[in-house]
């Protein structure tokens, strides 16, 4: 709007009084300003309008020198070219973003509100600016052995980690259907990453992860941790970290290091489990203090599960915490009374 407004103001002022002819130099700024907001066609029209106003006798600006007039024409033509280049670049960026969104939906489809007996709410923000997919991942699946969930964090960030995320999610989704216990699911994911690492050109691949499996009645959850921050149990307005002995990260050979130990956590009606990646646990405030996630969850424990991840994200911003890694959050709330069976497609 600024170029149009400037053109209108200068034209009106010079038509009203001849004393405003000193404002004529502002017409030369209209084409460059148009580049910021308009495409090449609109920029060309505004540039033509500026040159036209310069040559209308009624505006008292019809005495520009040849050099001044040619300068305005040149600036207008150059602005049209720059606007064309910018519009092409913007179109390319829009296409790349659309591809990124398609990749994100393919890698991590949006969670449904419910998977089996479990209500779900997920949250994801990549650490790398302009990137929709990073090194964190999560998924919740219903299968023959119950509802199972995973959250993980692979080595690296951004697009370089996407291939590893795809591989691990594929292994998890297959294992949900085939493996009868969580240790076997973790072993399947570890083997997948070990095989992929053997073909990697630089170093070994690894990822942290935590796996959960809910009992059919929703009164217990089994947990296996592989180097990943443990879930936080929200119970009667309190937030307590689940005590679990973590195994080594995935990809380092669980068979050699010893499989992780599964634990069973009893659940009461209304209990929820909050899972978060390092991006949340290791966020730091201005005094370089880690974000106190369990304590903050205790204050937010009575919030609606679907709103809890967004509230934690807002709390991080309110406390001025610096987030240095991908941020992933997952809230799982078993509600067996409202259960409906059937695996996710």
From TrEMBL:
Keyword Disulfide bond found: no
Record's keyword annotation contains Ion transport: no
SMART domains, alphabetized: PP2C_SIG
Pfam families: SpoIIE
Alphabetical keyword list: Hydrolase, Membrane, Transmembrane, Transmembrane helix
Record-annotated PPM-type phosphatase domain positions: 113-334
Transmembrane segments: 36-56, 68-85
Gene Ontology terms, MF aspect: phosphatase activity
PANTHER family the record matches: STAGE II SPORULATION PROTEIN E (PTHR43156:SF2), STAGE II SPORULATION PROTEIN E-RELATED (PTHR43156)
Protein name in the entry: Membrane protein
Organism whose genome encodes this protein: Streptomyces alanosinicus
């Amino acid at each position: 709007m600024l170029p149009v407004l400037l053109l209108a103001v200068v034209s009106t002022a010079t038509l009203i009084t001849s004393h405003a002819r000193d404002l004529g130099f502002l017409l030369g700024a209209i084409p460059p300003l148009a580049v910021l907001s308009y495409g090449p066609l609109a920029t060309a029209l505004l540039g033509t309008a500026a040159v036209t106003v310069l040559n209308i006798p009624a505006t008292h600006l019809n005495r520009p020198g040849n050099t001044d007039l040619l300068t305005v024409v040149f600036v207008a033509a150059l602005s049209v070219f720059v606007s064309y280049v910018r519009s092409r670049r913007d179109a390319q960026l829009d296409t790349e973003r659309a591809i990124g969104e398609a990749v994100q939906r393919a890698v991590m489809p949006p969670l449904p509100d419910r998977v089996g007996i479990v209500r779900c709410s997920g949250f994801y923000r990549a650490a790398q600016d302009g990137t929709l997919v990073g090194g964190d991942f999560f998924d919740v699946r219903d299968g023959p052995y119950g509802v199972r969930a995973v959250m993980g964090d692979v080595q690296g960030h951004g697009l370089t980690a996407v291939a590893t995320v795809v591989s691990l999610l594929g292994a998890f989704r297959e294992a949900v259907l085939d493996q009868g216990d969580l240790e076997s699911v973790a072993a399947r994911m570890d083997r997948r990453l070990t095989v992929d690492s053997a073909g990697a050109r630089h170093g070994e691949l690894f990822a942290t992860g935590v796996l959960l499996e809910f009992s059919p009645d929703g009164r217990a959850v089994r947990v296996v941790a592989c180097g990943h921050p443990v879930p936080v149990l929200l119970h009667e307005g309190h937030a307590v970290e689940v005590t679990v002995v973590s195994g080594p990260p995935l990809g380092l050979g669980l068979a050699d290091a010893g499989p992780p130990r599964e634990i069973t956590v009893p659940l009461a009606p209304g209990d929820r489990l909050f899972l978060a990646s390092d991006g949340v646990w290791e966020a730091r405030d201005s005094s370089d203090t880690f974000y106190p996630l369990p304590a903050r969850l205790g204050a937010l424990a009575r919030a609606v599960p679907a709103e809890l991840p967004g509230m934690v994200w807002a709390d991080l911003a309110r406390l001025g915490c610096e987030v240095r890694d991908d941020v992933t959050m997952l809230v799982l709330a078993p509600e067996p009374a409202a259960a409906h069976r059937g695996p996710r497609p």
